[in-house]
């Protein structure tokens, strides 16, 4: 259980120290599959977006990757994930032990970070359902979009509020 607010960024397993300030409740948390990498945030994600682009699909090994958007400054990594330059517009991070995808950061928008929504812990946080499907031009042909999910649909980049 993460009951302590963590300070200083970036953090590693060797230097993290619980803050003496306990008035800021942790509102969201998550981890990779093996729990080596974990993170906290002070607020719930602003929105969830299903990205059907080829890179997300292959990286996820699934029809799409659901991203949960947070303010980059609000994510506290207890151990920093490994970075990979995935395309010319973004870098992604993953767990070096289990390979779980953790995040994506777009060079054009460093203020918001996309966290792999499947890594969010259930329980404490109110997590909104995905509100957008993006990059449907690259959608896997064998995947049928759910009817009536209320999510907006975009061929490429969508327009949505990340923060
Ligand atoms: Zn892991
Ligand atoms: Zn994508």
Automatic annotation (TrEMBL):
Protein name: CENP-V/GFA domain-containing protein
The family this protein is said to belong to: Belongs to the Gfa family.
Zinc keyword on record: yes
Keywords: Lyase, Metal-binding, Zinc
Organism per entry: Penicillium nalgiovense
InterPro entries with a match to the protein in the record: CENP-V/GFA (IPR006913), Mss4-like_sf (IPR011057)
Stored Pfam families: GFA (PF04828)
Domain CENP-V/GFA, first and last residues per copy: 28-155
Keyword Lyase: yes
GO molecular function: carbon-sulfur lyase activity; metal ion binding
